Amino acid sequence: SAPDVIKGLLLRNLRWWSRRSDTIFQPDGTLSIGYVYPHMYMTENYNSPGSPYWGMKVFLVLALPPSHPFWVDREAPHPFASRRAAGEVIVTPLKHPLHIMVSALEHTYLLSTGQACHYPLKATQAKYGKFSYSATFGFCVPTGSYMLDQYALDGMVGFSDDGGETWKARRVVEDPRIEFYDAPVLGGEKWPVLVGTWDVFGDGDVKCTTWLVPPPPGGGPKEVTKHWYVRIHQISVARGSHRKKILSAEAGWAVYGQGKDGRILPFFPSGTAETATSGVVEGRSAPSGEGRRICGFRGRSGRDCGFACGSQSGRGDASGRERESDVAEDGAADVERGRGERGGQVVRGGGICEEGQGGEWVEKGVGRGG
Q: How far apart are the C-alpha atoms of 286 and 276, rounded to whole Å?
């Protein structure tokens, strides 16, 4: 809370926004509703043309007296700046909102499992229920309610029991919590993990428990680990379930869906290599719009998808992989474990997931997506 640190945070923030003056203002000079550019789809019924002017609170600093240290202190860098520059990954569990913050030089993001809105919002699952929210990659909201293309499952896992026509994504978590695990590689430091279960279809028939594992604090034994977090899903279907087939789809960060030539990004084949030299975008590269894909998984909807991660890329959304699970005919409980690792950097498909007929995915253990 030192004045020089606050001054640095405030002035860097103002400079960032001032460099976007060509998109944050309407033709009449008023601030637009949206974030960085006009985006009415992100609005709610309580928004109005005056809503963006909450941003004027930043100028409360002008009420400080001339003698305040704020006016004479130099700007201080971010408190984590030197640690991140040295390659450290700073992992911070947040007890009350049930988040885990992950901050590294290339990427800062939030792991989330305990938040939900108590009143109806447009696309509330996307705005509050995703597994992660990034300071680099924007998140998507659904554009409709028909087929996977429109559901925008970046940062999420979704389920369908009607052949993929409609999808369910996480909104309310039953038992959100942060668990701490011993990790010998950390020299005695505890490793925080977010855990939570949600009732997929709302009738207790199918439940999904997810563990969100951040990269090891400090960066871990390998440099690449700081770009990743791990998802572990346990999906359980009740005995005697009337659901015979359940589809699931999952995706990583959303990226801009066009290349420098203005054309949609091409597909990567299954088994795409996992380094940037083979065409997979690093986290810090994505905002530049260089137009390279970061995900090699192709979903059932193929080229008709409007997603950049896992299917078509035209609108900068994200899809992911899709797999089909057959519920046991004899009613035995069907418990399925799958892992998804993702960060801003890499994807792996070959030898781990196999593409079946019609674009189906057969889960074989660990799947990684960018």
A: 11
Q: Which two tokens stand for residue 340?
A: 């998804």
Q: What is the pLDDT of residues 289-305, one digit of tens each?
A: 222 222 222 222 222 22
| Token output for 146 | 């028909």
Sign of torsion, CA 134 137 141 145? Answer: negative
Q: Can you tell me which residue has the tokens 């996307």?
A: 126
The candidate with the shortest Cα–Cα distance to 300, out of 248, 352, 360, 249, is: 360
Amino acid code (one letter) for 341: E
Instruction: Give every CB contact of residue 41 below 8 A, 6+ residues apart in sequence.
Output: 122, 141, 143
Could you tell me what percent of the chain has a pLDDT over 70?
68
pLDDT tens string 84-105? 888 888 999 999 999 999 998 8
Degrees, nearest 5: CA angle 336-142-212: 40
Nearest to 86 by CA among 241, 274, 244, 218: 218
Q: Are 247 and 324 in contact (CB under 8 A)?
A: yes
- What mean pLDDT is predicted for residues 163-191? 87
Q: Which two tokens stand for residue 57?
A: 């609170």
SS (HEC) of the chain: CCHHHHHHHHHHHHHHHHCCHHHHECCCCCECCEECEECHHHCCCCCCCCHHHHHHHHHHHHHCCCCCHHHCCCCCCCCCHHHHHCCCCEEEEECCCCEEEEECCCCEEEEECCCCCCCCCCCHHHHHCCCEEECCCCCCCCCCCCCHHHCCCECCEEEECCCCCCCEECCCCCCCEEEEEECHHHCCCEEEEEEEEEECCCCCCEEEEEEEECCCHHHCCCHHHHHEEEEEEEEEECCCCCCCEEEEEEECCCCCCECCCCCECCCCCCCCCCCHHHCCCCHHHHHHCCCCCCCCCCCCCHHHCCECCCCCCCCCECCCEEEEEECCCCCCCEEEEEEEEEECCCCECCCCCEECHHHCEECCCEEECC
C-alpha 120/C-alpha 138 separation (Å) is 22
The pTM (predicted TM-score) of the whole model is 0.70
pLDDT tens for 205-264 read: 999 999 999 988 765 555 556 778 999 999 999 998 999 899 999 999 888 778 888 888
